[in-house]
Structures are given as structure tokens and as C-alpha cells.
Specification:
Shape: flat
Helix content: 55-70%
Oligomer: single chain
Radius of gyration: 29 Å
Strand content: under 5%
């Protein structure tokens, strides 16, 4: 049976920490590039003059079908006596 040496444990911890920070940094760069590309794509598709205001309205799905099934008037309650 082999025992772990103290320098080996420290090496392992150091490698894990380094891999974590490298992965974190690379992911941050990847997301920044994606956001920059998507913003550039939108600006190329619709050129806008300075001072123009555009309001885009996105319709929300109707909630009436969901609300009708959970109508508070149709819920039966039972009184609890103490």
C-alpha cells in the first residue's frame, strides 16, 4: 500500500486550482466573443440613425387558459375545527 506524499498532494491541489481558473477564464472569453458577435449581427441587420427610437413589442402567451383552470371561485375548501 502506498501513502500519498505531501508534495504530491500539493501538486494535485495546484493542478486542480489551475485547471479551474483556466477554464473560468476561457469560458469568460468565449461568452464575451459570443455576445460581441451577436450584438454586431443585430447592428448589421438593421442600420439605425443616432437618435432613432425603436420599441419592439413581443406578445406574451395568453394566460387565460391557465388562469381559468386555477380559478379561485371553483376551489372547494374544508373547514377545520380545533
Amino acid at each position: 500500500m502506498q501513502l500519498a506524499s505531501i508534495p504530491g498532494v500539493f501538486k494535485t491541489i495546484l493542478v486542480i486550482v489551475l485547471v479551474y481558473y483556466i477554464f473560468k477564464y476561457a469560458l469568460r472569453l468565449f461568452i464575451a466573443v459570443k455576445v460581441k458577435n451577436s450584438a454586431g449581427f443585430r447592428s448589421q441587420a438593421e442600420p439605425k440613425n443616432e437618435g432613432d427610437v425603436t420599441i419592439e413589442y413581443i406578445e406574451k402567451p395568453e394566460l387565460s387558459s391557465r388562469r381559468s383552470s386555477i380559478d379561485a371561485d371553483q376551489v372547494d375548501f374544508e373547514e377545520i375545527e380545533e
